[in-house]
Design a protein that fits this description.
The protein is an alpha/beta fold. The chain has 19 helices and 11 strands.
Length: about 475
């Protein structure tokens, strides 16, 4: 049959990827562990070249060699079992790609196992949700370069395109593609939480009605905050509930789920001594949100400030919220990109930060106007210590830091919790403090544990008999 690519796993994401490939002229073989999803995909076909298979051996046989097989299977053990099922039918030089949200360490293990058998393995981060999968996602492939080259023509074709440039670039070796996707999701968590905190201020402190807040977001989306997440937030806020006629947002329970990638990002940062406080706070905010019943009880018992609403000038404070959100975003992206940089050094991955920012401009959930500037910052200085000190952002934060300060202090005075806005301000203030009081901490460590300290005026390690 000589089909050019095979897709295994035909849930919404898998079917859409298969359709995307077929829409771009690929001859696709499709297989799912259960028959039902394959049949559903067949019903959706509108002349595309997708051939369903109900037997894995026939599926593999239908593919042109070297075979290219794209897995869109639930991450974790299902990936391992699909690989085991495929192995007897594969030959040296064939390529397996995992397009799910796999943990990058699992990807590394699979990469090594398969490489030993002569099979190429790519861990491919894919972002963009179901629509992106169909119309063009952002694609982050990691593995051996020569293996990537075999599939690059297909991947670059199905990716989102921004000004003619595909949002797909070779990320680096082994699990680096899935690592980049993992931290993308961490940034996604932080960005979503920052937007939610901006909304909270507009709603609970400025007391704006939902429609007006939607207008504010719409205006912001025409400026430097332009991004997919701001755009969908506007649409969410405009949506009315069909049952009650209320804004739909007001009937959605305030409990947030998560599937693990934000947690993995935080754990990886903590394990490797990387400051990712904003991402981690956004994760904890989800955890606290899930304590709905406890929060309802606590609301009756625990007091907050009595004077909640101050007379604030609406337009002036909407502008402060906008500045605070922009500042929060810079700090969150600075942390995420530092996590890339530090991990890249740790594993010698040589992650292309400039290109990563570029492929995030389209297709993915965190796509935003200011990724152009982030990319430019790394183009000008590949060893940039922190996005905050890139000339463009340093100038920007000079103007906006006061806005963030105003919103965080007003929020605290009003008893609103701002985990990510305040973590952003804390990060900003601690990062710009050349001489801090961390010396007291180190002295305490030396006092009770003889952990020693360095001095400001001479080289070496010192210990004092404090008592
Ligand atoms: C994307 C998304 C996608 C998904 C995550 C979010 O980039 O397309 O990040 O991967 O929405 O699973 O996960 P949570 O369920 O953890 O919010």
């Amino acid at each position: 049959m000589n089909n050019t690519i095979g897709v295994i796993g035909l849930g919404v994401m898998g079917s859409n990827i298969a359709l995307n490939m077929a829409n771009h002229g690929e001859k696709v073989s499709a297989y799912n562990y259960t028959r039902e999803l394959t049949d559903q995909l067949v019903q959706k076909l509108d002349g595309q070249s997708i051939h369903p298979f109900y037997d894995i051996q026939e599926f593999v046989r239908s593919l042109k060699t070297p075979r290219k097989i794209f897995l869109m299977v639930t991450s974790g053990s299902p990936i391992d079992s699909v690989i085991q099922t495929l192995l007897p039918y594969l030959e040296e030089g064939d390529v397996i790609m995992d397009g799910g949200n796999s943990h990058y360490e699992d990807t590394e293990r699979r990469y090594h196992d398969l490489k030993a058998r002569g099979i190429g393995y790519l861990g491919i981060g894919i972002s963009g949700g179901e629509v992106g999968a169909l119309t063009g996602p952002s694609i982050m492939p990691g593995g051996d370069r020569d293996v990537y080259d075999k599939v690059a023509p297909i991947l670059t074709k199905i990716a989102a395109q921004v000004n003619g440039t595909p949002c797909c670039v070779y990320i680096g070796p082994k699990g680096s593609g899935h690592f980049v996707k993992m931290v993308h999701n961490g940034i996604e968590y932080a960005d979503m939480q920052l937007i939610t905190e901006a909304y909270t201020f507009l709603r609970d402190t400025l007391l704006l009605p939902v429609d007006e807040i939607a207008d504010v977001f719409e205006t912001w989306n025409q400026g430097e905050l332009k991004s997919y997440l701001i755009e969908i937030t506007t649409e969410i806020l405009r949506k009315k509930d069909e049952l009650t006629g209320l804004p739909l947002i007001d009937v959605i329970l305030d409990k947030v789920g998560q599937k693990g990638t934000g947690k993995w990002t935080s754990i990886q940062a903590i394990d490797n001594g990387i400051a990712a406080s904003i991402i981690t706070e956004s994760l904890f905010a989800r955890y606290v949100s899930s304590l709905k019943e406890e929060r309802v009880v606590a609301e009756e018992m625990l007091v907050g400030p009595t004077n909640k609403h101050h007379n604030l000038n609406k337009d002036e404070w909407i502008e402060y919220v906008r500045q605070a959100l922009y500042m929060g975003k810079i700090c969150a992206y600075a942390q995420g990109f530092n996590q890339y940089r530090a991990t890249s050094e740790l594993y010698n991955w040589k992650l292309p930060l400039e290109d990563i920012a570029l492929i995030f401009r389209g297709g993915c959930i965190i796509q935003a106007e200011f990724l152009n500037v982030i990319s430019q910052a790394y183009k000008e200085n590949a060893n940039l210590a922190n996005l905050l000190v890139a000339p463009f952002f340093a100038e920007k934060v000079k103007k906006y830091q006061q806005g963030l300060r105003n919103i965080v202090s007003e929020g605290i005075q009003s008893g609103i919790s701002f985990p990510c806005l305040s973590a952003s301000l804390t990060y900003y203030d601690s990062y710009r403090t050349g001489r801090s009081h961390a010396n007291l901490l180190q002295a305490q460590r030396d006092y009770f544990g003889a952990h020693t300290y360095e001095r400001t005026d001479r080289e070496g390690m010192f210990h004092t008999e404090w008592q």
